[in-house]
Amino acid sequence: MLDVSGLVAEYGPVRALDDVDVEVAEGSITAVLGVNGAGKTTLLRAISGLLPPKAGTVRLAGRDVTRRAPEDLVRLGMAHVPEGRGVIVELTVEENLRLGGLWRKDKGWLRTGLSRMYELFPPLAQRRSRRAETLSGGERQMLAIARALMSRPELLLLDEPSLGLAPRTAAQIVATLRTLRAETGLTLLLVEQNAGTALSVADRAVVLNLGRKVADDDAASLAADDRVRRAYLEM
Ligand code: ATP
């Protein structure tokens, strides 16, 4: 589904990502792990077009999409939920969801999509007419994910969905991601600081350190790898 090769990204003189390869199989959940500043957020931004990479290629379902604009990528089936949620707080829950479906040509989807999102995230159904600024952190995260899902992506990039949430809320969100994958075959690339949470839901994981990939394996093997855990995962 996603094939990233030799990706390099820089912020001025700072090289934040150096020659990174990542493959994400269709229908899989892949976690991107690593300590603060490892380059995880930069990897997602370079894939989704928010930060044009200096070198390397990004292929989505076989098509070269390197340096395509984020809105083009949404049309091609890639959605990105950035760190810090990215919902529009002045709008209501339902207005945010409708915005997420704006690019869809199949207008019948809007109604189906809204009821699907309310089914997946019941707290949003109860708050559909409230402004997003009145939501709790967990509800905002649900809204950000649901809004991205309204574009009916094949690949969802998620940056730190459990950041700042109570463990119970984080667990609920992770469980919903599992349901989604099982029901829709959605492919997920998930950035997480909390390696334990990520490895419990992911099939595979890559570990970044100082912008380079230092491990790439199935999630169970990585969780059992003491060297990687001690050196890069604070587990
Ligand atoms: P975090 O969990 O803190 O978000 P991360 O693994 O996602 O960490 P990145 O945010 O990708 O790491 O940062 C990678 C490197 O790039 C770090 O050295 C960081 O200081 C640097 N960096 C990130 N954003 C910028 C920016 N806007 N300008 C300059 N340097 C940046």
UniProtKB/TrEMBL annotation:
One of its GO terms (biological process) is L-amino acid transport. The keyword Glycoprotein does not apply. Residues 2-235 form the ABC transporter domain. Keywords: Amino-acid transport, ATP-binding, Nucleotide-binding, Transport. SUPFAM superfamilies: P-loop containing nucleoside triphosphate hydrolases. One of its GO terms (molecular function) is branched-chain amino acid transmembrane transporter activity. The keyword tRNA processing does not apply. InterPro entries: AAA+_ATPase (IPR003593), ABC_transporter-like_ATP-bd (IPR003439), ABC_transporter-like_CS (IPR017871), BCAA_Transport_ATP-bd_LivF (IPR052156), P-loop_NTPase (IPR027417). It comes from the Bacteria. PROSITE patterns: ABC_TRANSPORTER_1, ABC_TRANSPORTER_2. Belongs to the ABC transporter superfamily. This is ABC transporter ATP-binding protein.
